[in-house]
Structures are given as structure tokens and as C-alpha cells.
């Protein structure tokens, strides 16, 4: 099918606009990457120029003196634990709300969705008081538990939208074949819901990985801090090692970029899942 001259011009303009937008999005990452190989003197003299020598000294300093690997491990423990629990529990709740017949299912869904209207800042003071009485302050559980609760409303919103669109004939056929409710859920519903599950997992992981507020409030021991909090260690009272901090930032954002690139197809599918009933 041949395009008219007007359509060709529109297509060229569209790609130009998209190209400019892509450059604007990628340039900050490129600048960070190049700056991580500079010295502080080079950064101050010409922040937009290329490094004179590509050296890994800043990364070595970030790992050895900045203890980035220790913070990295803490972030992995908190993020993975919270994501696993949030995904498993929210998928079970979504299944119960959308696939089972009970009177309060709609009310229960609305109660969970109300959680999306509560800002995390409103929960800090009561959570701090609660964890203090329970002896959970300065433990990873003090960060994991709130993140699970924060992820619940969004996770249930996405999963109920997808599971509600699945035909009930699948479950009826499975029951006729002798499957119980657990087999239906784990062997039929969950594999079909992979896109929505991946979407919830990735969005939750990125939110937890980049969170600064909760670890900074609930954790006091430096050995238990996460990466976002650990980045503040590079800022001294009289001077800041910016290039080492930039190298630490690169180490911090790499997992989020890898996870998103690896699973972006499932994320897009999960975001539109359930939009069309079928």
C-alpha cells in the first residue's frame, strides 16, 4: 500500500518527534555513565565533555569505600521478599474477588482500592509507633511489611482487571476433569495471568528498589541500609565525592533497567489486560 505525500510527511515528522523525545530521555543516563569515568576536577572543569581516561577507579571506590555491595544486598533482600509476598497474596485475593461467588466481593475490592488514595507519608508516624512497640525497628521487616501493604491496592487493581475477563468455562471444564480449587488456581489461572503478574512484580520491584523514605526512617544501622540511603554516604560535611557517587548511582539503576528491558513486553500486556472483555 503506497502512502500519499501528506502521509509520508506526517510519518517523517512523527519519527523526528519520537527521535527527539528518545534522545531527551536517554541523554541523562548517557551523561551519568560518561561522568562516572571522570575525576572531580574534570567534572568541575567541563561537566558536558568526555572523560580524558576511561578508568574504573570511581566504581572501585564506590564498592570498597562506599560499601555499595552491602547496600545492594540489603536492597535485594527487601525488594525480592516484598515482591514475592505481594504477588502471591494479591493474586489469591484477586482470584477470590473475581472468580468466587460471595456477597461482599465488590465491597472487599473497593476497600482494597481505597488504599491507593492513602499517601505513604500519612502512614509513617503510626507505623513507627507500631514497629517500636513490636520491636521491629531497625529490621528489614519494618521496611518489607509497609511495602507489601503499599503494593496491594495497585496489584489487586491490575489482577482483578485481568482475571475478571477470563471465561468461566475454563474452570468449569477443570472441575469436570477433577481439579480442586488449588489446582485450578496454580495450574490454570496463574499461568494464564503471567502478564499481569509480571507487571505487578516489576512495578513493585522498581518502587521498592528506588525508595528512600521508609529505609531512612525505620533503619538506623548502616549495615542494614539500602542503596538509595547508601548514596547519601558520599556527601560529606565539607566536600562531596561526586564522581564516586555517580558511579554508585549507575550501579543502583542497572537492576531496574535490566528488569524493565527483560520484561517490558509483559508489562505492556499486563497494563492493558482486562481492558477488552473476551
Automatic annotation (TrEMBL):
It is a multi-pass membrane protein. It comes from Blautia celeris. The keyword Isomerase does not apply. The keyword Membrane applies. The chain crosses the membrane at residues 12-34, 76-97, 109-129, 141-163, 184-209, 242-263. Keywords: Cell membrane, Membrane, Transmembrane, Transmembrane helix, Transport. Its main location: membrane. Residues 72-263 form the ABC transmembrane type-1 domain. It is found in: Cell membrane. This is Carbohydrate ABC transporter permease. Belongs to the binding-protein-dependent transport system permease family.
